[in-house]
Amino acid sequence: MKKQITLIALIAAMFTANATVANAQMDYDKINYRLAETHTKEYINKGDDAYRMGNYKEAMDFYKKAREYNTFKGKPVVPERDIDQKMDRCGAAIRNGNSQETRRNREEASAIIDALFGLGKDKSSRSSSSSPASGVRKVTYNDLTYITTVNNSFCHILGVTSDRNGTVVEMEYLNLEKDDRIKIDKNTYIKDTSTGMKLMLQEVENITTRDYMPVECGDAHVFRLYFQRLSNNCTEIDIVEPGSSSWKFYHVPVNE
Length: 256
Prior knowledge:
Layout: H1 2-52, H2 56-69, H3 80-117, E1 136-141, E2 144-149, E3 155-163, E4 166-174, E5 180-182, E6 189-192, E7 198-200, E8 203-205, E9 213-215, E10 220-227, E11 236-240, E12 248-253
Antiparallel strand pairs: 1-2, 2-12, 3-4, 4-10, 5-9, 6-7, 6-11, 8-10, 11-12
Helix pairs in contact: 1-2, 2-3
């Protein structure tokens, strides 16, 4: 009788041990699946964020990382076509961006040459979109040192800040000569001098992109330009209003 009880207890213990091992394996699989899912979605989100900012090569690297993690026991965590579509879209943006970047670089080089040698067409008003650049000079204003055009005597940079919400360029138009009027071109952009990434103007405050705003003689008119956020390691930018405008600023420090 005692032998039977011992045998039954042994069999029960074996079943219990097997069940424990099976449960441990199931828990281990759940953990690994969650890790794969977390990493995959994290890299997809990072790729989407980089894509929205125009960092297409960086976005492509993130999508490649997502594809590496997107497998658990031979099966995809998220549909593979979702990542493939994002990579295809990103690849097209890189190809298109390269061609556009080449064109923009040529235009910018031409504009800088015009600025240095005074090839712009002269106009009468001193407002933002009217004064040609006839050279460049170094300026220190509000403890910031940067380069601007010689013809830009009145518009200054007060500061540049960038966080996860975006980039803010605060500027001041100090009118010391005569009653004037100003506006800003809607195609104004900033450029990360270390990466070449350009971000277009998103919003404005206390200035317009359509109608001129009057600025009386002796007034200091402060306004702000809003752009998407810069990369975390960006330390200085160019701020460029296109065309013959004298409002061009180079190597402007970004506030830490």
